[in-house]
Amino acid sequence: MVQTAPRTLEEQRFDIPEIGTDEGLLRVEACGICGSDCEQYEGVLPVPLPVIPGHEPLGYIEKIGEEASRKWGVREGDRVVVEAILSCGKCELCRGGLRHLCFKDGKSFCAYAYTPVATPPSLWGAYAEFMYLDPATVVHKIDPGLPAELAVMYNPLGAGYRWAAEVGGVRAGDTVVIMGPGQRGLASVIVSARVGAKKIIVTGLESDRAKLELARRYGATHTINVSDDDAVDRVFDITKGRGADVVLEVSAYAVQPVAETLSLARRGGTVVLAGVKGMKAVPDFVSDKAVFKELTIRGALGVSSSAFRSAIDLIESGEVDLAAMHTHSFPLREVDLAIRTLAGEIDGESAIHCCLLT
Ligand SMILES: [Zn+2]
Ligand SMILES: [Zn+2]
What we know:
It contains 12 helices and 15 strands. By secondary structure, it is of the alpha/beta class. One zinc ion is lined by residues 34, 36, 55-56, 155.
């Protein structure tokens, strides 16, 4: 399914490429849909068109060259997930465990789903039956016994590990505020609970009622409906005026929560900014609050390899009821409906995690 213009996807056919010794071919089984898919669909991301989107692939190795098989540690028939980012593997970021920040070609980031079909061999995205696997690919094996719609959650769960544990440094006994109860907010709840956070407070809107309830099932100790309540007042009540050790801002579009993070964090606390706002500036961002509290403010983009591995281990463990978060599966041809469902454009549908099943 090729995106040819904003909000326009059409079915097209491409030849299956010849696979060299350092390449592979994935038979796509499922592809997760997240907020970035909605932005790409809207046309707000600077992606050259036409392009095959789909950056959260799950599938089977259909073909693989000898060199790639040795380097990636997989063989034909293995079930794998594929990291979206294609990195150089040599620069200081790659060597320092930050391959998700590598600009492979030195100018812009290089990734599946954001490489146009004009670049041979065209099959760069997972809204497809087959996806080309470039020599720079990183794959992770995943248990072939898992239901596809759960296995494909490696991406939001990986974000939970990256944002809450690795970047936020959430530890046992901490108080954590998670602003935004979408896939990634819920994943952050799951991870915070697993590392032993004592108080987990999640904020959302009236329309997020079902997601806030699910947050409680996953270990949130408090939920705040900010349509009715002031988040800062409530967090100060709950923490007896202390504030949170870690504040994770994972909401989409809204900029007000970013300003509030500075009030919600305790003195010496950490703020993680991971919600993308379409390059909008944040009004009422009082930097003095960060100075006087000596806050650590960190951005978080995407998922590290180590966080992907942690997410896969969690899915394979079966210890968390992830099925409760999965609300919708769609066939590949209905990708348009899948995206609009996740974006909340379909009346009567309240989506949390959506995926395509090829
Ligand atoms: Zn995504
Ligand atoms: Zn690199």
